[in-house]
Amino acid sequence: MRVKSKKVDLAEGDLTPMIDMAFQLIAFFMVLINFAQTESNDRVKLPSSQLVKPPEAPLEFPIILHVAQDGEVFLGGDSFTAETLRVGLNNEIAVIKAEGKSVKDANVVIRAHKDTAAGDVQEVIRVAQEVNLENFALRVKEDRS
Amino acid sequence: MKIRNREEAQETQLNMTSMIDIVFLLLIFFVMTFKIVELEGDFSVRMPLAGNDSVAMDSTELPLKLRMRADERGRLTSISLNEIDLGDDFTQLRGNVISLIGTSTPVEGDDGPEIEIDTDYNLRYEYVIRAITAVSGYKDGNEVVKLIEKIKFAKPRR
């Protein structure tokens, strides 16, 4: 008797639609990803306003100050209080001056938490004014409703 | 004639497993790093230190004074513009600003009216932004009508 050689049949589904979908998803996320374009801080939740629009051109020499709810100020990864902030600002100004620009060209971007005491923000502004900074930008979230 | 042992048509099949592994790794990477970016914008304020600003002294126009009072928990209790009490209504504040400066000629540059914001120390920053929003303009459809562009803060109250 002749024995028919049986082929082992692997049960294999059609993977094409799944791969299609997976590539579509990858393409979607790749297009939408942007690496740390916003300088955000976890402890800061910005207030919102209907009037602001995202700036067309990035600010010149931005000094970004994050003001947390308790008044703590973050500048470039270091934490300051309104009293000690002057040290941090002087470092930033030294960098700006090293590039041959004046202090007046710098823009201080203030990202303050929405429940921070307004006085704390004013103190931060006062300290910045004392080191001759004069351009401020109060950063808020765009409210589209 | 019957043909025996006809060769079976063989499909060439790639092994997909490794590709799918990589694809899923990539997918997981992008999903994890995905973050919806909230659009942000700035209120630009030019505030030199009051002492060495001679321009402000020359100006014949005194700034409008906006006083904001807070309760002990930082909530807004009252706003007053040039000593006129406006309750805690920002639309009324905007209305008053419009009636004071008029809307017929939108101001540009350094010659526009100025407003000085004087708030209680513990007032929440959010209310200050709402006040700045109210005095700096309003939305007419999709157009933004500008009112006051020069904003400054009074000395902080301790």
Could you describe the 3D structure shown?
The complex is a heterodimer of chains A (about 140) and B (about 160). Chain A has about 140 residues and is α/β, with parallel strands linked by helices. Chain A has a domain at about 50-140: Nucleotidyltransferase, domain 5, CATH 3.30.420.270. Chain A is built from three helices and six strands, in the order αββββαβαβ. Chain A has helices at about 15-30, 85-100, 120-130, and strands spanning about 50, 60-65, 75, 80, 105-110, 135-140. Chain A starts with 15 loop residues before the first helix and ends with a strand. In chain B, about 30% of the residues lie in helices and about 25% in strands. The longest helix of chain B has 17 residues, at about 15-35. Chain B has about 160 residues and is of the alpha/beta class. Chain B is elongated and about 110 Å long. In chain B, a hairpin with a 2-residue loop joins β6 and β7. Chain B has a domain at about 60-155: Nucleotidyltransferase, domain 5. Chain B has four helices and eight strands. At the A-B interface, α1, β1, α3 and β6 of A face α1, β1, α4 and β6 of B.
